[in-house]
Request: fold
Amino acid sequence: MILRKLEAENFRQLFGKNSIGFAPPGKRNVTVILGQNGAGKTTLLNAFLWCFYERLDVENKEEVLCHRAVNVAAIGDNIPLSVSVVFTDGQSSYTVTRKGMYQKLDGGAVEEVRAPEFRIDITDSEGSTAKAADPKQLIQQILPDKLSRFFFFRGEEMETLALQSSGKDLARGVSEFLNFTLLDQAIKHLKQVGRDFEAELAKVATGDMKRLEVEISESVEESESLESRLETEQANVSELMKSRDAIERQLSEADEVRPYLERKSELTQRKTDLRLQEDENRKELAKVISRNGFLVGSNSIFGAFSELAAAAVKAGELPAKIKPRFVDDLIDAGLCVCGTKLDEKAKEQLLTWRGKVGLAALEESINLADKAVSVLGSRKRDFDSDFFAARSAWSKTKQEIGQVTGDISAVDSELEGKDFGLDYVQALQNQLRSVNDDRISRSVEKQRTEDALQKVQEKLEQLRDQRKRLAKDQSEAQIIERRFSATENVVKTLSQLKSDWLSIVQEYLNGQLSENWKKVAQLERLVEFTDSFQLSIKERGPDGTWVTSAPSSANLRALALCFVSALIKLAAQIGKDESNADARRQQPFQGGDYPIVMDAPFATMDAHFKKTVPSGLREVVPQMVLIINYDQWEGEVESALQPCVGSAHVLELHTPGGENTDITIEFGGSTLDYVVSESDVETDWSIVKEVSQ
Amino acid sequence: MNTWEDVKRKKAEMRTAAVSTLTENEKSILMKVLELEWENRHLKTPDIRRPLRTYIAQEIQ
Reply:
């Protein structure tokens, strides 16, 4: 999706017909749209969302039609409302249009004359145009609604992506990129079929199996109800964590509170690292046990063996006096040891010796076994030392986690209860306390449900194992049981495929993130997209190792922008992956080149980031659209991006006001109207004007 | 750093490893369910339960 043009008529703040042409990919791939606060910058972002998905990401969602258009219309006049976006994707151009018609009624109210119509016209490379049969499905293939927030976003939303509470959102977002819809449907349907087979089993079962089927059926019901409850509880906890993060971000604006939040951020990051460490400790312990764990209890066996050998020596049975080979040679040759031919007496003697040969063989075996026991004994000593080292490392990490958790609680208590002497802080602290109380009680509920679910699932597994054994005696039940087991195995494999594919892509995104950080942020930091799908940032400590620090808002934004550009690269790779264009068109998400459209992304960045991030970012994405106010544009951002601007526009704000309140700005050598005060207008309205380059 | 080629290779290895744990019958059920989902992907609420059940019943007798 490479943007070509946006046209909006009477859409919210935008009065009349407005048009924006976007800079194409290349050296001048930046489109800049300058707008004063309140001039409709967010309206422009929403124009895309309304056009594509008929939704608005604003508080007053019902207000779509421009007030100014209603005010200037005569009673009975029709007022058109439309947004149209033209973009190219592959070889075709798409014109996406959503338009409706309203009429002004007596008294100033408006009535919908024609409900908004949605259509997509596709123009191929030879210029012929056709209407898409199912435009809703087509737009979801090109840019699924759930993914739109990674390409069209406000600066402050961007920051939340980098917070730890967004881990689940990021995992869901990456899943959307990977087209899991088909796999998810397959898993869902197979589970339904599995339940059908279980119902069939219940019908044909007799005796003990009948009783078992009733228990299984009850456990399945309980498990499903717990799964659904858990999903709701997870969503609740996740929402509350986001609310907590939002309040803490507001609190961090107070100088008095910021040090506490920075300390908390450090501790939280430390806890995340320790959790990863704990995971490593657990794996190491498992490795030690799997390598030499069979030697546990071997001391008594080795001891018994040594006692056995010592007893044989004491009894004079060992070491054997005659070697087996020597006796065998004498028998083969038919000769005595002195060289004479064997007579009956000598033969009898040899046979007596042969009897002793058995003990010699035993000696050999004991010698071999003794060597093996010695090797195993050494392995056992290694095992003991590795096991105790791994176990004590794990205990130490767990102890540290406990310590850090306690420290976080202490900071939380101060954040909630300390008197900072500021009313607005006090109000935020009250909100924080209430959100935290709620979060804790929900988390407890969630944990209890998780425990209950695990118990039910373990029970279900045991019951199904029992059923498998019993079904062997009933041929009809055995076949149905085999069908059920096969269905379950396929579900497990599909789930495994999903999680493996997700972790391969997480690893890829982690690499891309790190590359982008070098190019875009140009600051020595260790950035990671962890295997729990969280973004993390570390800086060099005094001893040269990477240590966690409390990331600033600027760091979080830069990190999130680098991550989004990694996603844009992923989308491009997915788009290229299918050489067959027809097959690509059938996918739920097609992938391809995507723009990055941002409203005020650099607001909280310092001078370093303002110099590096805008220019670095525009190099790693095909097309960049920047909606920004003049204060944020002027200076470092302007110097960094001006040579790359391929298209520029200003959102001219018309506002009720007196004389001398007009504002003009300088852009590309021209003086432009930025805010125009008018005495005869009742509400703010804006119009887009192109700036010649 | 992993390139996209690495990603594709790992994906292919992962597929092979995951599918190798299945019996021939199970592999065929896996292919069938994906085929049915693909054919019905345009439907808002695709229901492939009946054809899938029939297929599994035929496969395992």
In short: The mean pLDDT of chain B is 87.
